[in-house]
Amino acid sequence: MKEFWSSVASLLGVLAFCQSILHAVFPPELRFAVLKLFKRLFSSSSYYCYFDITEIDGVNTNELYNAVQLYLSSSASSVAGSRLSLTRALNSSFTTFGLSNNDSLVDTFHGVAVVWEHVVSQRQSQSFSWRPLPEEKRGFTLRLRKKDKHLILNSYLDFIIDRATEIRRKNQERFLYTNSRGGSLDSRGHPWESVPFKHPSTFDTLAMDPAMKTQIMEDLRDFSNGQAFYQKTGRAWKRGYLLYGPPGTGKSSMIAAMANFLGYDVYDLELTEVHTNSELRKLLMKTSSKSIIVIEDIDCSINLGNRKKTSSSAGGGGGGAPPNEMRGGAGEDGANSITLSGLLNFTDGLWSCCGSERIFVFTTNHIEKLDPALLRSGRMDMHVFMSYCTFPALKILLQNYLGFGDSDMELKSPVLEEIESVIDKAQMTPADISEVLIKNRRHKEKAMNELLEALRTETRKKEKNSTEVEDEEQEKRALENPKQNCDDGEEFEEKSWKKESSAEDDEDQEKLN
Length: 513
Fold this sequence. Notes:
With 513 residues, this protein is of the alpha/beta class.
């Protein structure tokens, strides 16, 4: 036994000596060339070819990777004997099958067998990067015979993309994204955090004018089916909507109804968490196609006011900031410094074309505060005024909350007729009316009576306020034109004196008679 171990030690010493001589005689470049030659010889004699599909392609997420992952998740559930991973998102009703790390799966397409392998490895640590990458490097490797490459490769990949699109539509699993606080990235290098999108609003339940609702639905349908049209006309496949009106008129519900109608994801962009124009572009690059990018209350998010009003006020006061630099805050104290130019390029510049089939939706309560450059066609193509509740919109609310049908509407009870006559004067929002109906949804008659009383109260308030406004305007005019007011007062006194004298003459005449 002792002789055996001594011989093994001698052999290892000879191998180490040969290795040192090999490294001294053959430089690393020559060894690399020899290994490369051997790989080519082996690959030429191999029957298979390999294709790598990485998760990240340059700076963008590889859409083909997502499609393959979704396609294999549906195929893996029916494969026996494979080691699968099961995932289920928070508040989700779907369980997703997937390949475990570095596991493989055999698929068949048109009688040809292919092998998919899920490759996961640790990424090498980076000293510095302007865009941090995920800690793990993920990808799929496709292996097929060389003779089958030209027969099925292109058609197979097209089939996978179509199948993934069909699965998405079938599952209807959409997500609501928001940008991470302070521009931070998650473990996979994504700047967006997501939750399943479960908002129940639809165009059927949305309380607004039916004609306007139909117009919006037709416009959305034309957009989603308009890929050939946009390519033909040379326009980027995107569209902008501006929703404006008083608070409580259903702007957020409109966005949810649009997402449910089209089956799109929603990206809720919080501008106060975006520091620079460059960061804004990076967020846009990380959004997916078939999505709605939303900026709510844009007039309150950052300072993007009307430059015409700003320049006129600055000229009158002799100071103020230059009108061409409308920024969100001072860069010195760390606040965001997004410029109006950066936001315009975000919606209509070259960077807005880095994806397709996107919808931009801005909401505001005060459209007059926004700069006209932000409102023009090409940026905000369709302006939708979300008005106070009208009688056609009220019919939808009565149907939603009280279960009113067409027969109930046709009967036209006295209460309903009076509601119809005062609802436009009351100027109540759908949110206020919904609250009255929700509290009394089990008692229809009580709900209608309370709604009528609420409308009457609001009508009286509006009339009283309008009267007070008229009185204030008369007082202002009187203060602005004192001479004319004095002439009017003298004329009034002369008329009153004539009336009094005529009344006295009539009394004397009666006494004489």
